[in-house]
Amino acid sequence: MAVGVEEVVKELRSTYTSGKTKTHEWRASQLKAIIRIVTHHEDEIVEALRSDLKKPELESLFMRIGQRICLLCIQCFVLINGGRFFSFFFDLIEILGSTPKTQNRALGPAILYLQTQLECPVGLLCVFPVKTSMTTFPASGEIVPEPLGVVLVISTWNYPFLLSLEPVIAAIAAGNAVVLKPSEVATATSSLLSKLLGEYMDTTAVKVIEGAVPETTALLEQKWDKIFYTGSGKVGRIILAAAAKHLTPVVLELGGKCPAVVDANINLKVAARRIISGKWGCNNGQTCVSPDYVITTKEYASKLVDALSVELENFYGKDPLQSKDLSSIINAHHFDRVAKLLDDEKVSGKIVFGGQQDKTNLKIAPTIILDVPDDSLIMNEEIFGPLLPIVTVNKITESFGVINAKGKPLAAYLFTNDKKLKAEFIGSVSAGEAGLPFGGVGESGMGAYHGKFSFDAFSHKKAVLRRGFGGDVAARYPPYAPWKVQFLKALLKGNILGVLRALLAGNAVVLKPSEVAPATSSVLSKLLGKYMDTAAVRGCFQGNSCLMLSSGRRQSFNVAARYPRATHSLEAAIS
């Protein structure tokens, strides 16, 4: 076992048991600390990403300011305050006062976006009221989210900063103690995360453990209350097997072969630019939701190849290996893995664009491969690199069969103007949701996060039923008479009149509706007087069923006092 892992988990367990992480104050302080990390260490974050992935600065800025970090910042505020306006407002003023002005301008759209995602109207420790059944009447029900305990987050290398902090934020916001294990492949980012979280966070409840396979193995031997893993399906299976030993729930954010189906009669230039942006513009294909392969018709394939070739040259020049706008492959191991897919004899002769390699700088040019055989290596594993096979079919609807013959992807894309084809695509293709919530299905993973769903991923939804001591019905207790069976059957069906008929079988009943609800009281008096046996009071003493109705408090008490032999009173239950 790696040195110290067991002691780390014991310390976190002790901190969580003390109740420290469940308090609003602790959660708020830790989330604000993360905001300070991402707003005060911009240059260090960009430099770490450049060191690990040769990531262009524009990509780092886009993913950090324009999209993710603003979302992270406002997620912090909203999760801290859960929609409580004034608390949210003053926290926002506080952080804006210590945030660079260049980032303040980006917060507005993120605030509006996050407000649309919130469903909890009460606060971080929000309570969601739910309806209860007749069997528990009178009672109220609610769902109370509570933290799971001590959780483990194992991050990945392709977006090493973002995909580490997002689940950590959710775990903290939900009130958990957390261990972050960054990817050892992105060494610069892993070192930076360990340094910054160690400086800014409460290290008795938030830990970073660096290392490779031995450290990860030691972590997986411990008992966790949840494991959140982002990475490959191969490692995902190892994580799931280790979690099963302790019956630990998991979120697995994996990948898969994400298809892009391209129909004819579309704006081909726009489609080509979007495919390029999703494939090569985000980490040079090293993204779990990037298009892994394209499907189009045989007659349209040449037009698609031409459009992609033109736009790729416009984006990255005639020699893309020299382009500073293209990320490198993460390391030599992954370079060799991708190169092996390209050197396959079933594939090498079908390259129609690109294919150049520079192992010294770990770069492979954007590569398009046409009519790739289904039994080739490239079509039987996730590429996770800058290669894009194009599969051709006779009819575009045949693409559904091609997709469904493989494992379920994390995302699937369709470029078409055909409404019928869109409906068939949605109904036929199963994939994870590349939005909110974000998560896979089948071989592309399990569980989901992003936005409110991140909070839910690290929370247990506890059911709470509240009942007073009034309204206790004798029919639920022995001895069980026939009228009790009828009563309970009617109760389970929600049949109020059936309940009353059962109670009236051989008994006299005084019903006193609540005077607080005069309209309901009046309606009950009218309807029950019309449909039920309202024989004279004298008949009650002779054993006949009767119903004495009263809409006023004084009158009802007089009735109850005058006829004490009435054997059932629904006053507590009805009111």
UniProtKB/TrEMBL annotation:
<dbReference type="GO" id="GO:0006081">
    <property type="term" value="P:aldehyde metabolic process"/>
</dbReference>
<protein>
    <recommendedName>
        <fullName>aldehyde dehydrogenase (NAD(+))</fullName>
        <ecNumber>1.2.1.3</ecNumber>
    </recommendedName>
</protein>
<comment type="similarity">
    <text>Belongs to the aldehyde dehydrogenase family.</text>
</comment>
<dbReference type="InterPro" id="IPR015590">
    <property type="entry name" value="Aldehyde_DH_dom"/>
</dbReference>
<dbReference type="GO" id="GO:0005737">
    <property type="term" value="C:cytoplasm"/>
</dbReference>
<keyword id="KW-0520">NAD</keyword>
<feature type="domain" description="Aldehyde dehydrogenase">
    <location>
        <begin position="143"/>
        <end position="464"/>
    </location>
</feature>
<dbReference type="GO" id="GO:0004029">
    <property type="term" value="F:aldehyde dehydrogenase (NAD+) activity"/>
</dbReference>
<dbReference type="InterPro" id="IPR012394">
    <property type="entry name" value="Aldehyde_DH_NAD(P)"/>
</dbReference>
<dbReference type="Pfam" id="PF00171">
    <property type="entry name" value="Aldedh"/>
</dbReference>
<dbReference type="InterPro" id="IPR016161">
    <property type="entry name" value="Ald_DH/histidinol_DH"/>
</dbReference>
<keyword id="KW-0560">Oxidoreductase</keyword>
<dbReference type="InterPro" id="IPR016163">
    <property type="entry name" value="Ald_DH_C"/>
</dbReference>
<dbReference type="GO" id="GO:0009737">
    <property type="term" value="P:response to abscisic acid"/>
</dbReference>
<dbReference type="InterPro" id="IPR016162">
    <property type="entry name" value="Ald_DH_N"/>
</dbReference>
